[in-house]
């Protein structure tokens, strides 16, 4: 009768491991057991410091197997066990990226954020992008506002971006700004429920597959709040700075504070704060009134030790310009309202942030 593997293991289970006190099979020192017609081979994997104590075990194991009916040659080898984890034999596992990465060709990333929705973050992003482009900077604008992508409308571009090879995505361009929007990847009017992993994938695709070309700055228009997009962006990519937009109201400021806190935790420097809808200037008579209060953001900036980059008035022309697809710095570059945005752009260049 031929010797079986089970018979060998049963015999070895009768032998005690002097270190663990259990049997040598249960303690895991019997390795690489091969039972063939030509002979039985196995290894006792032991602590080399205890080699002397295991010699009788090896002899007993060899004798026990030899005594089994059908046994032919028996070979038992003692080897030193390894403290290291066994090598990962899975096909060449990809090395994990080490922390945030740079986007090839993009010198710096500037995030435009707000705590609360509707405070004018997209308006600010579009005007800053156009103002920087007008100064000769090579500017990209990524609309990552998955809840309300508005850059295609503000920059007056439409249509779906082309992907000639199915891998790279060709961005759109207007007013000297290279632009891409997550909104352009979905069907117009279609409600998309973005979940964490989907968002991460979409954002990484936007960063790495869009042909941004050589840019001095890529402005990222973030969704409001402190969610997955903000976290993914800062964890996967080097974000060189963030500008936080808020209206002067307390409710907006409370949320802005949370956003600032998040960037601090993610080690993203706050370049400055912008108070939008700071004061209302009547387009008929020029009368000025503080609809949402005034100066709240300045106080916050002072408390944080961050610069207040601008107080942008609430002005009809700013809205109609954006709605019409030509931000005010493009459509009325010499107006007082456009000048405010151009001044912020100049400050950003001066600070090395754009
Ligand atoms: N200073 C301003 N004067 C007049 N209208 C403005 C001003 N800033 C923004 N708006 C208008 O307010 C509306 C909301 O602005 P915007 O879309 O830029 O806000 P947001 O913070 O990006 O909003 P969301 O939460 O959708 O991301 C738009 O219609 C815009 O044209």
CATH topology of the largest domain, anyone?
A: Rossmann fold
Mean pLDDT level = 88
Q: How does CATH name the architecture of the largest domain?
A: 3-Layer(aba) Sandwich
Summed up, the domain count is 2
As a percent range, the share of helical residues equals 25-40%
Q: Quickly count the helices.
A: 11
Major beta-sheet overview: 9 strands, mixed
Return the CATH class of the largest domain. Answer: Alpha Beta
The unique ligands bound to this protein are: adenosine-5'-triphosphate
Unreliably modeled segments: 85-90
CATH superfamily of the largest domain: P-loop containing nucleotide triphosphate hydrolases
Strand content: 15-25%
Which structural class best describes the helix and strand composition? alpha/beta
- Give the SSE string: HEEHEEHEHEEHEHEHEEHEHHH
- Spatial shape: elongated
Rg, Å, rounded: 33 Å
The N- to C-terminal Cα distance equals 83 Å
Number of strands: 12
Pfam family, one: ParA
Domain MIP18 family-like: 5-76
Subunit structure: Homodimer.
Protein name: Iron-sulfur cluster carrier protein
